[in-house]
Amino acid sequence: MMRRLNAITGAALYAIVVVVPLFVILLGPQSPERGFWIEFGVALGFIGLAMLSLQSVLTARYPKLSGVIGQDTMLQFHRQAGIVAFGFVLAHPVVLLLAEPDYWEFLDPRVNLLRAAFLILVVFALPILIVTSLWRDRLRLPYEWWRLGHGALAMLILVIGLVHITRVHHYLSDPWKQALWVVIGTASIGSILYARAIKPLKVRRHPYRVTDVRPAAHRTWTIALEPANDTAPLQFRPGQFAFVTLDDSAFALEQHPYSIASSAMRPERLEFVVKELGDYTATIGGTPVGQTAYVDGPYGSLHLPDDPSSSLLMIGGGIGISPILSMLRTLRDKGSRGRVVLIYAADEAEDLVCDSELDDLEHQLGLEVVRVLREPPAGWQGRRGVIDVDLIDDFLPAEGAGKWHVVLCGPPPMMDVVERAARDRGVPLRQIHSERFDIGAAHAVGQRGTQIRLVVLALGAVMLGAAALFAW
């Protein structure tokens, strides 16, 4: 319930921040009206610029914001809102040109070469920004370089947009009105600089050292980090994650989001479970002990339910067992709780992470572990196949399901199946604890992803109404 209230409050604040500046510029002396469609096109431009300004705030990695709303929620909202903002900005010149063809002079280099050059640059830069964001994987763009270019393009578009509206004096002739939009733009650009420059500077003052690298499963490693010098231990909730840089520089482009797998009761030693996936992580097992590391976090809202006596169904798929390991290890160090069932799926037996430790946790916590293999070996006594509705039925019967909490982490298709099955059996959405914390969350279509899409569409409709009211 709290997460839903936070989301509703966040959406309302978002709408206020976008729409209020539009109507504030109507205060004071007014210039002559120019017709509904011209004013409507102008309003679309102001709204689009305000939305673009907020995009960088959503991805600036503010830990408290991430912890309250959830990193996956912020990323999905960022993606959906970016598409809507693109539509508003694109509609701005289209509506104006259809209403008054004389506006072509803004793009005519013979009238004003510098102005035309920068506006044409935006016309090309904004679609590039959207296309490379939505189809980065298909275009095979390395994430680190894409992220750097994404931030640079976003800053360029914002600066040009702010200069454009301050030089078109029809509505912003008063200095205080110009100052309002400069503040909005500065907050946005400041968020980009915070994420790209200030945050690394802060992280650099608190380095870590790699103290252990050991196998956790086939082509999967546990990397242990401990604070270097007088760095204070990172305080986190089990289930959260951090961006880790294994490099001598905190400004390195290689930053990876890893779930913390260690106990929150022992913050002096952070452990991350990392699987070799063919990119930067392909050589993770060769990380030397003593290597400098930087930890930026914690982030995310995935956590254990507050009621320690509630029945808990944990479902992990592949490397998604990492945050669940943190929860189980924390429960072990704090003492046992109510009934806990873990369903853990992997491709093969050798892919089961920390399997022997799970055996120990079964005895220490009274934990019930159900292992599911897609390609089981001969003589396998556990479950076969994948996590599906029938398997969920065995451990989450419809009768009494509303008293259970469900924690899950794994591949998006698995999470979608589990979320849907849990909801169908009567588990409230507020009792389903999940988070897609990496950049791939932008493509998630789970229960919360669908809700976020509807929220953004509703916000878009509200803003269209505000633009029409402005022009009326």
How would you describe this structure in keywords?
6-stranded parallel beta sheet, elongated, 472 residues, single chain, alpha/beta
Gist of the model:
The chain is an alpha/beta fold and 472 residues long.
The biggest beta sheet is recorded as: 6 strands, antiparallel
Summarize the amount of helix as a percent range. Answer: 40-55%
Let me know the average pLDDT: 85
Let me know the number of strands: 12
Q: What fraction of the residues are assigned to beta strands by DSSP?
A: 15-25%
Measured on Cα atoms, how large is the radius of gyration?
Answer: 25 Å
Task: Write a structural description.
- The protein has a six-stranded antiparallel sheet. It has a six-stranded parallel sheet with strand order 10-9-8-7-11-12, with helices on both faces.
- β8 (340-346), α10 and β9 form a beta-alpha-beta unit.
- The model is unreliable at 438-442 (pLDDT under 50).
- The protein is built from 13 helices and twelve strands.
- Helix content is 49%, strand content 15%.
- It starts with a helix and ends with a helix.
Secondary structure elements and their pairing?
Layout: H1 2-24, H2 36-58, H3 63-69, H4 71-99, H5 113-134, H6 136-139, H7 143-167, H8 175-204, E1 208-217, E2 220-227, E3 241-245, E4 256-259, E5 270-275, E6 292-299, E7 311-317, H9 321-334, E8 340-346, H10 355-365, E9 368-373, E10 383-384, H11 389-395, E11 404-409, H12 412-424, E12 432-434, H13 447-471
Helix pairs in contact: 1-2, 1-13, 2-4, 2-7, 2-8, 2-13, 3-4, 4-5, 4-13, 5-7, 7-8
